[in-house]
Amino acid sequence: MDNNNLWQRVLEELRLSVSKPYYQTLFLQTTLISLENNVATVSCTNPYVQGMIENRYYSLLKSILDSQTKNNNSLVFVIKTITKQESKEIGPLFEKEAVRKPVFDTHTGLNPKYTFSSFVVGNSNNFAHAAAQAIIQNPGGAYNPFFIWGGVGVGKTHLMQAIGHAILEKNSDFKVLYTPSENFTNELVQALQDKNISVFKKRYRSIDVFLVDDIQFISGKEYSQEEFFHTFNALYMAGKQIVLTSDRPPSEITKVEERLISRFMGGLTVDIQAPDYETRLAILKAKRLEKNLTIDDAVLDIIAQNISSNTRELEGLLSQLVTQASSSHTELNTDFAKSFFGIQKQKTSKILQPKNVIAAVSRQFQIKTSDLTGVSRRAEFVFPRQIIMYLLRDELKIPLVKIGEMLGGRDHTTIIHGSEKIRQLFNNDASIKQQIMLIKQTLSE
Ligand code: ADP
Ligand code: MG
């Protein structure tokens, strides 16, 4: 099968798994330039598309390509915009394309980008980072399993893969395997169909470092859980390192057998928060270096101030900004960045989300969001949490039960009590009123 045909098939299959707009903007214009030594080189039209595909769809694309070729491949993305004129001139596309050669073992599933050298450490992730260092010194012996949880785009996958790279660097004969939990499930189903479950078992039980990403997706999949439980035990008993990530702590993963949850909690559980301003700025500087961009610190500062959610968005916006400036032939200066965010804001400010409210209160009181949404009843958390209750109830009109769920599974009577108390204070205490107005102001900015 030639590259064109193969890529058509991959895209056909991919189309079933991603939404139409994403499919059209991200994938439709990609091509497979080459597939050599199990390294697929794929062209994208611009850095934004490249970033999105690499960050969000790497494992999905890989698993489809692997199943089409019955091989274990890795993917490299290059940017190539072609004009009509060019395509006439070069004839067969991309012959002269200079390709970045990846230097990694195709059997590990690791993306060469995600190493410690490109990982910025700040307040939001320093504990997770320190624990990771201990694991590298002593795989299987320090913390096992190592369970990393946190919201979308905070760097879980990056950190997990960096652990894999670092262990491999020290022990080149180790078998490191990175797999999104969906891949584990898909391969299990395939093995059952092909009746070679023993090969599957052998493959997963001969690993030294097992990195399973987004384990929450195993929820509700009983057979996968059963098999995962046995794999986990076998590796654990043999002193092999297991690292898991999830978008929530183990105790909040639903529809997963109790015995498995208790295994997840048997080692060290850490969370990664959304990066604070300083970390955001440091990450942007690292990305500037990595992507070899010429952008002033002042522009990076504007981005860091305007994006507070997660690193993926930060990176995406950096790329968008660069692309927009270059496509409109404008200098990427602070004015351009400011007007760029002016537009962005109008678009997003209409939909105020609970997470924004929680983040705003967290900033105001300098308390971690996980503490505010957690179960602890420590006095210093109670008051800010009640402000959240009040804002979610009065401003966002969210049902009491929902608010209770968001705030550590609290009863609706607690929410009524908390929000009433703040409403009283708001009406009778000027300083508290001012404090709340301030929070509201940051929300409407
Ligand atoms: P998650 O798995 O938590 O959703 P990722 O690990 O995929 O997030 O990170 C999203 C993007 O942000 C990646 O491009 C990653 O390199 C980048 N990133 C996240 N955290 C950091 C960090 N601390 N330093 C540098 N880059 C980071
Ligand atoms: Mg991830």
In short:
About 55% of the residues lie in helices and about 10% in strands. It is an alpha/beta fold. It has a five-stranded parallel beta sheet, with helices on both faces.
Overview of this protein structure:
Keywords: ATP-binding, Cytoplasm, DNA replication, DNA-binding, Lipid-binding, Nucleotide-binding. By secondary structure, the chain is an alpha/beta fold. The radius of gyration is 24 Å and the shape is globular. α10 links the parallel β6 and β7 (241-246). Residues 84-105 have low confidence and may be disordered. The chain is built from 21 helices and eight strands. It has four domains: 3-80, DnaA, N-terminal domain (GMP Synthetase, Chain A, domain 3, 2-Layer Sandwich), CATH 3.30.300.180; 125-272, P-loop containing nucleotide triphosphate hydrolases (Rossmann fold), CATH 3.40.50; 277-342, Helicase, Ruva Protein, domain 3 (Orthogonal Bundle), CATH 1.10.8; 354-444, DnaA protein, C-terminal DNA-binding domain (Chromosomal Replication Initiator Protein Dnaa, Chain: A, Orthogonal Bundle), CATH 1.10.1750.10. The N and C termini lie far apart (54 Å). The structure holds adenosine-5'-diphosphate (ADP) and magnesium ion.
